[in-house]
Amino acid sequence: MRFVWAVVAFVLAAGLIAAGIAQRTIFMGPSTQEVAVAVEEPAPYVLLDGDVLREHPGAQTLLVRGDGDIFAAYGRTADMEAWLAGSSYNHASVGADGDIDVAFVDAAEPEDDGGDTAGETPAPEETPAVEETPAPEESAATEETPATEETPAAEETPTTEEAPAEEAPAAETTTGRSPVGSDLWLDSFTDTDSLIADMQLPEGVSVIIARDGTADAPEDIAVSWPLDTSTPLAGPLLSAGAAMLLVGLVLYVLAIRHQRRGRGPRRKGPGPLPPTEPIDIAQLPPAERAAIEETPSAPAPDTSAPDTSATDAPAPDGKPADASATPGSDTSGSDVRTSERRASAPARRRRLLAIPAIALTALIATGCSAESWPQFGEGTPSPSPTATIIAPENQKPPAVTEAQAKRILQEVSATLSDADAAMDIDLAATRLDGPALTARTTEYALRTALPDTTPPAAIPTDEVEVVLPEATDRWPRTVLLLSKSSGDDTIPPVILTMTQQDPWSNYKVDNMAEMSADAVFPKVAAAWLGTSLIPDDSAFLSIRPADLATMFADAVDEGEQSASYGQFDELSQNLAQSIRDSRQSVVQNLADNGAAETSQTSFDIVPADPAPVSMATLDSGAIVAVSLIDTESVTPTSADAVIRFGDNAQAKALTGVTESAKGVTTKYEFQLFFSVPAQGSSEQIRLLAVRQDLLSVEVIK
User: For residue 541, what is the DSSP state?
Assistant: First the structure.
């Protein structure tokens, strides 16, 4: 019967294990759900609406196949539609029936649909493609073959130009605008022949697919989502099968052990003997009684042990008949050891049989992942703490995300490093604008004439402490950053503002200055919230941003006599004093060279042409970036006197002469960042960062 129960246990174990394995193999469904995007009409771009990517729950995987380079990026849907304005593309969206509809958008359609988009992005009309259209006119206008009578054809060219003139911007922008490297994307992916990108996009974010803006976009596009492949019964079934297998092995071993102890089947023996009774010798006949009495008495045999009388009898030679029974020999010890070995052998065999069962159980238990077991006690995730700043209902999205701003800053720093190494002002102009570009132009000119000139320091990107984007959905867009180096203490933190003029342009740095070690940066909004630009004539600050540069210039010229001197903090006053000291050093240098009576100096500091950039802070104040031009002129006082540059190598390098009969004018540019308090505040205007650059040295003519 034990064998029967062992077989039953083995059968149950096999069934349970097979059922558990089937849960993870033949009964388990597909791990992903894939939907193809059918593109019928080729176009340079494909816009996947965010609803397509969120049609099913879970993370999305974008699959794009095609020959050659493939580009994909995701960003805000409104930004992508603005970037695609004036271009032909395929727009994939979710229809009313839940299917994916792909509609071809012609280049002329956005002009009719998007009044707001056209108003926000007038740049397509200003694209260089329009400037390229006169090229055929020039080739036609250059009448190198006047003898030929092709003038009518030349006259027809204006008519042909007039017809496609309206279509030219759309056609040019459709085929010539590459999405690769745009700062507008939150993230981008590139690959060859096949592109696989994992993403999890929130609402309001879409994906663009293209090649280089000229060739047609790939048409083999699919989106897949993961499916729930958990099998909570697989683990328990496998474990129960392993346990039943172990039970079957134990029953099988017990059955074999019981069979061996029974030593096979037994035959039927004789019945029980009659009970013996003592013999009364007195009742026996005399002859028998006499014979019994004459027999010597002997000890009663030990029925519990075998008869050893034959072995106790001495042999004829006087030795015991059995040599093993000699005195000192112990036959019982060897018999005991033999029986112990025989008894321990089944125990060892049982342990050896149990090892595979235990190992199999452990293997099955470890091979099952969390998806093979039921999950108990899974509570809902704890909500993240709410932000202390609550965005208003009409709050616009920030111009960039924090990760996007850091990536852009790294690209800006890398581009400027390459431009500084090659002294390529055209390359620098792709990432600089305004006062920052003007200062770079002079630096490259000085380094060309004076190779020993120290190159400008690279923008640190190790730690970006502050990302303050403008909250807007229009252009231009402005972002303020504060970054510093974590490995080099000699590199000061840098405050900069960068602006994106339109959706097709990259961000360019227009103001940049080094932050003082004693300056305290004001509290600003989080990067995910953004801030607003303050108008130049705003009355909500202690002074208008448009008047800040003029007031500081007056503090420099007049010193403590200036009416605005007390409104600036100690750092600002120290900067104003250092500018006055540098002016005095110029006057003293002329006196030391004996030119005090034959020359005169004049100084003037005025606001630069670029308008100030003002971004609101949390205390109702603002961070204001301004630029000032400090002009220093040295002119002779008599017609016989000349101004010699002497040891001024920079003046010689920038002017190309060593002296001037009418004088010389030197211009310096100051880029300053101030923290301006709110209207009615008792705080002073605090200086945050300053940068001084040599702009030009010109001979007065």
Answer: B
Which tokens go with 70?
Answer: 């493939």
pLDDT at position 493: 94
Q: Are 91 and 102 in contact (CB under 8 A)?
A: yes
Cα of first residue to Cα of last residue in the chain, in angstroms, is 123
CA distance 339 to 333: 10
Residue 645: pLDDT band (50, 70, 90) is: confident
Q: Nearest Cα to 509, choosing from 499, 517, 520?
A: 499
- Which among 653, 659, 667 has a CA at the least distance from the CA of 598? 659
Residue 487 in this model has a pLDDT that exceeds 70: yes
Q: What is the pLDDT of residues 175-208, one digit of tens each?
A: 568 999 999 999 999 999 999 999 888 888 999 9
> Contact 130/171 with Cβ under 8 angstroms?
no
Give pTM, 2 decimals: 0.71
Q: 178-187, 350-359, 387-396, 646-655: which has the minimum mean pLDDT?
A: 350-359
Q: Determine the Cα–Cα distance for residues 593 and 589; give it in Å rounded to an integer.
A: 6
- CA-to-CA distance for 514 and 414, rounded, in angstroms? 18
d(CA 275, CA 630): 142
Residue 592 CB coordination number (10 Å): 9
* DSSP H/E element including 116: helix 115-120
| pLDDT tens by residue, 672-682 | 999 999 999 99
Give how far Cα 524 sits from Cα of 378, 391, 534, 555, Å. 39, 14, 14, 28
Helix axes 545-558, 570-592, angle to 10 degrees: 40
According to DSSP, the β-strands at 89-94 and 100-105 are: antiparallel
Cβ atoms of residues 610 and 435 within 8 Å: yes
Pick the closest to residue 45 from 88, 92, 98 (CA basis). 88
Residue (of 554, 557, 545, 549) closest to 607 by Cα position: 549
Question: What's residue 377's pLDDT?
Answer: 56
Single-letter code of the amino acid located at 272:
P
Q: Which residues contact 188 (CB under 8 A, 6 or more apart)?
A: 71, 72, 73, 74, 179, 180, 182
The torsion angles phi and psi of 665, rounded to 5 degrees, stand at -120, 130
181, 183, 187, 193 alpha-carbon torsion, rounded to 10°: -20
Residue 616: strand pairing partners: 622
Phi, psi (deg, nearest 5) at residue 650: -65, -40
Residues 120, 113: Cα–Cα separation, whole Å: 13
